[in-house]
Amino acid sequence: MRTAGVAFVVSAGLLFCGGVRAQLLQPTPEAQSNPAANPLTNPGLTPDAEFLYQLEAKFAADTSKGGGRAFASWFAADAVTLANGKAPVVGHDAIAAQATWTPESYQLTWTPEGARMGPSGEMGFTWGHYEGVSKDAEGNPVKTSGRYMTVWKRQSDGSWKVEMDASNDGPPADCCRVQ
Would 175 be classed as within a structural domain? Predict the structure, then answer.
């Protein structure tokens, strides 16, 4: 019963704290499985951070199902992507032109580890870890992983879109282990 009470308080906070939000998404299994996004394991979680986690979870779920086309649909008209060793890609159309993978050819997954909302409630950002899995010419799995940051902005129509997505490849798994 206590869990239901906490969930109600958190849900009410999402509705009434910080003004009316343009978009309120329902919690997803992805967001609930991330301990940082769970108010029961992270009592300092703010309603604004939870909102950003929910946006990120919906973005990831859409990308998993729809590949590059779904990924690109989340970007604002003037968005920017930054990736390791590559020139910036500016604008939704340019981002969409590069995001041509299908879910069968490439799976991109990510988990947010933190989120912050700006004081005005109009922009926020998330960061975390990503993993990409594709196959080489022989059909062997090829994995990439690293860190990412997504900058979110409320659009004039009240929706939320990605304004900037930045990522960098991570070091080998055993590079940074203290021995």
Answer: no
